[in-house]
Structure formats: C-alpha cells, structure tokens
Design a protein that fits this description.
Blueprint lengths: L3 E9 L5 H6 L6 E10 L4 E9 L3 E15 L2 E11 L3 E2 L8 E4 L2 E4 L1 H7 L2 H12 L5 E4 L6 E9 L3 E6 L2 E7 L8
Length: 178
C-alpha cells in the first residue's frame, strides 16, 4: 500500500485481542507485531498480527473499507480475513530457559530430542514456500465498526472504537524504541 500509514500497536484494551495477547505471554509463543495500516487513497484499513514460535511465524490480517463520517470519526466495514502461509524456520529455535510461574526451566535436554525434527522442518519450509495466502470472508454481524481518532501527531495515534481503546505508534517512530 503506497499511501498507507502503518502504525504498530503499543497498547490495546480491545477484548477480542486479549486471548491472543494472553497466548503471547506463553514461553514458546510470542506476539511479534500487531499493526494497522490506513490507506487514505483507497479508503482501506488492514489490521495484521504476526505470531512467532520455535518452529516459525505466521501472520493473519483483516481488511476493511472505511468511510469518513467526521474529521475524527470513520465508519469501518470489514471485508475479508487473510491467513499467510507460515514462515517455517530452517532450524528449531528454542530458548535455553523458559520461566513458568517464576520457575526457570532449562530446555537444553529437549534440544537433543528435537534435533531429528530439523530436516522435517526444513522440508516443510521448502514445501510451504511460495504458497498463496488463504482468503476468508468475515462472518456474522461483526463486519461493521467505527473508529474515533482522539489524538494524532506525526508519531502517535490514540483511537477508540466500538471494541475498545488502541494506542499506536507510527512505524519507524522513536516511541517504539522505548
């Protein structure tokens, strides 16, 4: 999207993302990035999420069209979801230790059991490489929403929607380095 402004989520109180954020606190699955790209030329929005784990990462997104209602409010209608083919790592990437309920557990012994899977993982990566994304319609009554921009500057955006509060920083902003 050439005219899109991409923002990275720094905080959200959107209830539908809370299970995803909770899963990202597990030792082996992390939320790598949650983004929102707004394209003012085509009047479209793309919300995307990338998760990563020891075997690879996968991304999914939802695209929407929007209509400007006031200078600070837009009406949004979600059109479809997209599941990107997973990016399989050429080797299994386990951390040395994981912290579970305050107890540090070494994963080094598991590495020797996973070593035989290395070739299978590499073979899977070759098979999946280049596959097209899967497009899915957005079901039910959750296709329409609204977004109210309550603060906007060159690096920072705070928005409220019918699903919650969103605090985002523009990609490349020094705010993301904090």
């Amino acid at each position: 999207m050439l005219d899109a402004t991409e923002h990275i989520a720094m905080y959200t109180a959107f209830s539908e993302l809370l299970p995803l954020l909770a899963a990202g606190t597990t030792p082996l699955l992390k939320v790598k990035q949650i983004c929102q790209a707004i394209n003012t030329s085509s009047l479209t929005i793309e919300n995307s999420t990338t998760l990563s784990g020891p075997f690879g990462s996968f991304s999914f997104s939802a695209s929407a069209a929007f209509e400007v209602r006031t200078p600070t409010r837009i009406q949004v209608e979600f059109k479809e979801g997209t599941l990107q083919p997973p990016e399989i790592k050429s080797s299994i990437d386990l951390p040395e230790n994981v912290d579970i309920f305050g107890l540090k557990i070494s994963l080094s012994p598991m590495q020797q059991f996973l070593n035989p899977l290395q070739e299978a993982v590499a073979s899977l990566a070759r098979a999946i490489s280049g596959q097209p994304p899967i497009k899915l319609p957005i079901p039910g009554g959750r296709t329409k929403s609204w977004l109210l921009i309550t603060y906007l500057d060159k690096d920072f955006r705070i928005s409220r929607g019918d699903g919650g509060l969103f605090v985002l920083a523009k990609e490349g902003s020094p705010l993301l380095d904090m």
